[in-house]
Amino acid sequence: MAPFSTLSDIDLEKQITALSRELAALRKAVSRRGGAYYEDGRDAALDTYSDLAGRLRDAMPAIRKQGRVIERSAREHPAAAAAVGLVVLGLVASLLFSRR
Asked: How does pLDDT run across 46-77, given as a tens digit for each residue?
């Protein structure tokens, strides 16, 4: 009969081998699932981007028109435009410094 330490070493080696096989199988399963999640996320991002691009494309004429109106107003009233710009700049600065 083999000594006790030899039996436990053999059992441990068998268990390590079995665990290594299980770990390899789990890695493959996680890899497959991770790839599927990546593809699903990529598809969702592409759909969202396409939807956003379509909406932006439809809204561009109105955005351009409003931009021209704002530009005309700024040219007619430069002091008011400068004041509004300073107020906006102050608000942005206060928001940035309030977070710190």
From this structure: 899 999 999 989 999 999 999 999 899 989 99
Sequence-distant (6+) residues with CB within 8 A of 74 are 81
For 27-35, which contacts have Cβ atoms below 8 Å and span 24 or more sequence positions?
A: none
Q: How far apart are CA 52 and CA 79, in angstroms?
A: 36
What is the spatial distance between Cα 68 and Cα 84, in angstroms, rounded to a whole number?
17
Measure the CA–CA gap between 3 and 48, rounded to whole angstroms: 67
The torsion defined by the Cα of 92, 95, 97 and 100, in degrees rounded to 10, comes to -150
- Longest alpha-carbon distance in the chain: 104
DSSP 72: H
- Write out the two tokens for 81: 């435009």
